[in-house]
Amino acid sequence: MKVAGNTKGRVENVRLLDRVSSRKAALGTLYLTATHVIFVENASETRKETWVLHSQISSIEKQATTATGCPLLIRCKNFQVIHLIIPQERDCHDVYISLIRLARPVKYEELYCFSFNPKLDKEERERGWKLVDLNEEYNRMGIPNNYWQISDVNRDYGVCDSYPTEVYVPKSATAHIIVGSSKFRSRRRFPALSYYCKDNNTSICRSSQPLSGFSARCLEDEQMLQAIRKANPGSDFLYVVDTRPKLNAMANRAAGKGYENEDNYSNIKFQFIGIENIHVMRNSLQKMLEVCELKSPSMSDFLWGLENSGWLKHIKAIMDAGIFIAKAVAEEGVSVLVHCSDGWDRTAQVCSVASLLLDPYYRTMKGFMVLIEKDWVSFGHKFNHRYGNLDGDPKEISPVIDQFIECVWQLMEQFPCAFEFNERFLIHVQHHIYSCQFGNFLCNSQKERRELKIQERTYSLWAHLWKNRADYLNPLYRSDHSQTQATLHPQIASCNFLYKFWSGMYNRFEKGMHPRQSVTDYLMAVKEETQQLEEELEVLGERLASLQKVQSNDNKVKSKQQDQNKELGRSTSNISLANTPQEYNSNLKSFPSRSPSQGDEEDSALILTQDNLKSSDPDLSANSDQESGVEDLSCRSPSNGGCLPSEDSGKDSDEAVFLAV
Amino acid sequence: MEFAELIKTPRVDNVVLHRPFYPAVEGTLCLTGHHLILSSRRQDDAEELWLLHSNIDSIEKRFVGSLGTIIIKCKDLRIIQLDIPGMEECLNIASSIEALSTLDSVTLMYPFFYRPMFEVVEDGWRSFLPEQEFELLSSITDEWRISCINKEFSVCPSYPPVVIVPKSIDDEALRKVAMFRHSSRFPVLSYYHKKNGMVMMRSSQPLTGTNGRRCKEDEKLINATLRAGKRGYIIDTRSLNVAQQARAKGGGFEQEAHYPQWRRIHKSIERFNILQESLIKLVEACNDQSHNMDRWLSKLEASNWLTHVKEILTAACLAAQCIDREGASVLVHGTEGTDSTLQVTSLAQIILDPRCRTIRGFESLVVREWLQAGHPFQQRCAQSAYSNSKQKWEAPVFLLFLDCVWQILRQFPCSFEFSEHFLIMLFEHAYASQFGTFLGNNENERSKLKLQQKTMSLWSWVNRPQELSKYKNPLFEANSLVIWPSVAPQSLQLWEGVFLRWNRSSKFLDEAYEEMVTLIEYNKQLKAKVNALRRKLAELETDDQMQENA
Taken in order B21, B22, B23, B29, is the CA torsion positive or negative? Predict the structure, then answer.
C-alpha cells in the first residue's frame, strides 16, 4: 500500500512528551505506515513502541514552532493524546498533511478491516460471523408466538432502508398497516419489536417520530400502536416514550414531524424524557475531554469542569429513561414504544439500557454482543457518521454508543456481581467501534453492509473477543447469584452521587492515575489457581485411593507431585507494583542535590511487572510487547497488567510494514 | 451529678424509629445515662437500636398535633427519626438527650462507666510504648537517644513523657530549643527510613518573630540529623504568606541564613474552622436528595473537601519523596505541629513504611503520631458535621487523615492488611466511644484523667482475634515497596463508605465484598486440602518404599 503523495514515511529525532509531566520526553523515530502511526523510542534497552491506528485519530493539531521544534498534537477517539515535537518545521508539516489525509479516508476500502488479516481460514471467519444470530435471539425471547411474528415486508429494504430485512411486529399488524405506518414516520422507521418479555407478554418497541405536524393523523399508524398494545393482553394501555426534551419535539412539529397526540391514539400514555441531541452530547464530551487534558488541574478545576461539561447529567438522563421503561415492563406490565427523532440514537441507547436492566442474559458477554447487534447494528445506528470512520460531516459525529457503554459501566459500579464481563471488555468494545479493524460497525445500515459484502471481506469483532473471553471475565460474576437473576433496580432519581467520572475510559492512557493494583486481576488469578487446585485435588484423591487400595507404589505419583509442588509455590498474585512519585512539588527539581537528574533517572529505574497476570490473549500479549510504549509513555509508572492490558490497537505484525523514506 | 436528674422520662412506648433503607420499627424507647435504646416489642424481629448519647451531634424536634418527632443527627453522620406519641414525653426525651449528649465533664463520659463484657487478652494501654519503638530503632542505628526530659510534662505539656532525639543533643539544649518553639514543641524524631538512614522530624514553628530571633541549639539539633555535606528539607505546612504573617505574632519560620543546609518548601494545608466548614458543606451536599446532577457536582466542589484531601496527600507525598528519592532528611511543621504536621508525617510513613500498612503497625502509627504526639482529639472531635454550636477548636483533621489513607488504600487495594472498615471504625471511635483511647487532648491530660486505670483501651478490644478478623483485608499481600499514590483529581474520590454510608443502600456492594471473600477463602481451603493430601501421599509412598526395601 502506498501513502498518499510524496510524504515522508519516517522522521528521526522526534520527541514524545509525557502528558502529565512535561519534562519527561522520549526521543525516537516516527514512522507513518498505511495503517498506523508508530513511534519507536531510541533508548536501546526498551525500544518502546507506540502504535496508533489512523482510524483512531480524531484530530491533528500543529502548534506554533518553538526553539525546540514543532509540536504536533494527535488526539484519538479512544482518548489517547499524543504530543510530539518534530525538530524540523518542514517535516512536521509533511507529517501533518499526510496524517490529515490518512485519518480521513474517503472510501470504505481504505479502512483497516479490509487489509487486516488475523490468519483465520474462511470457515473460521464464517463461524465468527455466526456467533451472534439475531433470529436465535428473538427465539430466545419466545418469538414468534401467538402475538408476534417475523415480517418480510422489508425484505429488499423496500419499506425502510435503514432497518434490517427481518423485523418482528405484532401478528395483527398486516403489511398494509406496516407500510401505512412507515409512511407516517421519519425515514419510514415504523414501530418494530426491540425486546419482548415472555413472563408477562410486555414488549419494548421502537420507531422514529410520527409525521404528525400540528394535526396530521394516520389511521395505519394508530392501528399499528393499537396492535402493539393488544399484543400485551395484560395491559389496557401503552406507554409512548419520546426521549427528546419536550421543546425539541415541539419544534419538530413545525417541520411536519413531532409526537403522538394522545387524543388520536386509543389508550396510550405519552411521556417525554429529556435526553439532549447529538450536538449537545458532542459538545459535552468535548468539554469533558478538555478537563481530562488539563495539566495538573486543581480539584476545583476538575470538578467544576466536569459539572460544566454536563456529561454526567446526560448519562443520568439516559439511565433514567432506561429505568423508566424497565419499570413499566417489569413492574407495571405495560408495553412501551420508544422513539426520538429518527429513532437511531437516543432510542438505541434507551432500549438497550432498558433491556440490560430487564434481562440478565444481556449482562453476559455473549448477551451483550447480541444486544449491540440487535439495538445498534441491525436497527441502523449510523456508525459511520457518528464515529467518523470515513471523512464526513463533523456535525454528524457524536459519542452516542460511548454513552451507552458508560451507562453499562455505571451499572457495573452499582452492581459489581451482575455482569459476566469486566471493565476491560467495555473499553475494548469502545476501542473497536472506532478502530475499523473488524467489519461489525462499518457503514450506516445493514443494507450498506450487505452491499459491501462485509461478512465475506472482513472479520467479526465478536469472535475475536469471544476467543479471548478469559481476559474479560468478571471474577465476581456467578450465574446463580441473586444479582444475575432478575431485573436490576438501580437506586433512582435522587442519587446523583452514584454517577461517577470514568477515568478508566477517559483517562485510559494515563495509567498513573488509576489504582496501581487491580482487584479484578487479583481475583482472576485467584480463580485460575482455584481451578488448578480443584483439578489437582481430584488427581491426588484418585492417587490416594489407588495407593491405599493396592498399597503399591507408583512412580508417576512422585513425578506428578513434584510438578504440582512447583505450581503451588507460585503465589496467587505476587503483585509487585511499580510506581514512582509524581510532581508533588515543582520546587523540588531545582534543589541542588548531589545528582541533578536524580529524580528522573530513578523514576524510570523502578520497573516491575506482574508476570502472572499476563493476558492470555495472544493478540493482546503480542501487542503489549510491541505496544508497551503506549502505556509506558502515557503514564509515569509502567505496571503492565496492573490495570488493563494494552489495547489491541488493531495492528498485526505482518501487516505493519514500515514505509521507506 | 446523677444522670437520673437529667432523665425526666426514662421510657416511652409506641415509639416509631425511621432509618434510611430500613422499614420503620415500632418499639419502646428507653433512656439510660449513656444510651438511647429502642427495642421492638415483636419477638420475631428483635430489632434494637443502641445509640451512645455522645454520638449525638444535634437534635431537632417538631410536632404535628400531639405526635412529636425527634430527628437525631449523629457524629457518624447517620440521621434517624423517632416519632414519639405525646407532646410532654417528646419534650422530655428531647431535653434529656440534649443534656446527656453535651455533658461538660470528661469523667462523666461513658468510657468511665463501661464495663467490658470480654476477656482482656492484651492490655491495649501497654501495647504501643515509646520504649518499644526506641528498642526497634536502636537495633538499626545508635544516632538517637530516648530522652525523659518531659517526664512530668514540664517542658512540653502536649508531648509524651519520653521522646526520641539526636544522641548528640543533651537535655539542657533541648530545654533551650523548647523555648524557641511554639508551645515548646521542639523537633523530635517521627520516622527513620531504614533504606537510607534518612529521617523525618516534626516540631512546631520556630519563634523567630519579626526581628529574626535565632537559637543556636535549635540549629544544632536539626543539623544533627544531617550527614556531612548533605542537605535537608523543611516542609512548612503553611503557605509562605501565612508563615510570614505568623512572625507578627511571634512565630515564624527557619531563615535560610541561619539554616543554610536546609531548603524550605511551603505547602498550604488548611486548618480549623475552614476544615470544619468544609465537612459541614460536604455532608450537606451528600444529604441533599433534591438537587440535580450539576448541583451535586458544584456542591461537592464548593465543599472543598477533596481539595483538602489532595493538598494533604500532596504534602505527604512530597515529604516521602524527599526522604526516599532525594535521600534527604525532613523536618515538618506548621504552627503548633499538632494538626497538619501530623497528617503529613503519618501519611508519609504509610507511603514509605510497609509496617504502617499492617493493622498492628497502623495502630502503632495512630498512637505515636496522633495520640502521643498530642493531637487534641477532645477539642477537634467534640462535634461533627451537624452541630450548631460552632466551637473554635473543632476540625475534622483526623477524619481527613483517614480519608487520605482510604484514598491510598483504594489505589493500592492489595497492600494494606486492613480494610476500609477498620478506618471507619477508627473514625467512629474518635468521635464517640465506650473506650478511653481518644479521650483527652494529650498524654498529660490522659494521665491526669487516669484513663489507663479507669477506662478500657480501644486496642484491648480491637486486637482480639475475633474482632480483628472483621477488619482484615482479604486481598492483602505484603508489599515491601514504597507506594506512591496519584494525587490527580481523577484519582481521588469521595469516600462513600463514610459520606454516603447512610444515603445509599450498600446491599449490592456488600454482596460483592462477600463474594470476594468467598472466592479467596475457598482458594485457601483448597490449598490446605491439597497440601494435606500431598503430605499423606508422601507418607504412604515412603511407607511403601520402606516395605519394598525391607
Answer: negative
The shares of helix, strand and coil residues in chain B, as percent rounded to the nearest 5, are: 45, 15, 40
A512, closest residue in chain B (CA to CA): B486
Flag whether B171 is in a domain: no
Complex ipTM: 0.94
Residue B243 lies in a domain: yes
Residues making up the binding site of A for substrate: 277-278, 340-346
Nearest C-alpha of chain B: how many angstroms from A543? 8
Separation CA B286–CA B280 (nearest Å)? 10
Specify whether the CB–CB gap between A62 and A96 falls below 8 A. yes
Which cell is B57 given?
451531634
* B197 grid coordinates: 538512614
- H-type helices in B7-104, by residue range? 87-100
Alpha helix segments (H runs only) across B81-148: 87-100, 130-138
Distance CA A444, CA A48 (A): 37
pTM for the model stands at: 0.91
A218 labelled catalytic: no
Q: Which of A414, A351, A415, A431 is nearest to A623 (CA)?
A: A431
Beta carbons within 10 angstroms of residue B104's beta carbon: 5
Are residue B268 and residue B317 in the same domain, yes or no?
yes
Contact B306 A303 (CB under 8 A): yes
Q: What is the pLDDT of residues A217-271, one digit of tens each?
A: 999 999 999 999 999 999 999 999 999 999 999 999 999 999 999 999 989 999 9
Q: Beta-carbon neighbour count of residue A250 at 10 Å? A: 13
Residues 6+ away with beta carbon under 8 Å from A405:
A426, A429, A430, A505
Strands A336-339 and B11-18: unpaired
Residue A523 has its nearest CB partner, among B294, B516, B544, at: B516
Question: Nine-digit cell at A59?
Answer: 484530530
Domain count, chain B: 3
User: Which of B269, B295, B414, B506 best tests the A interface by mutation, with the highest count of A CBs <10 A?
Assistant: B414
- Both B314 and B391 in a single domain? yes
Residue B61 and residue B196 in one domain:
no
Contact A476 B301 (CB under 8 A): no
Q: Note the pLDDT of residue B477.
A: 93
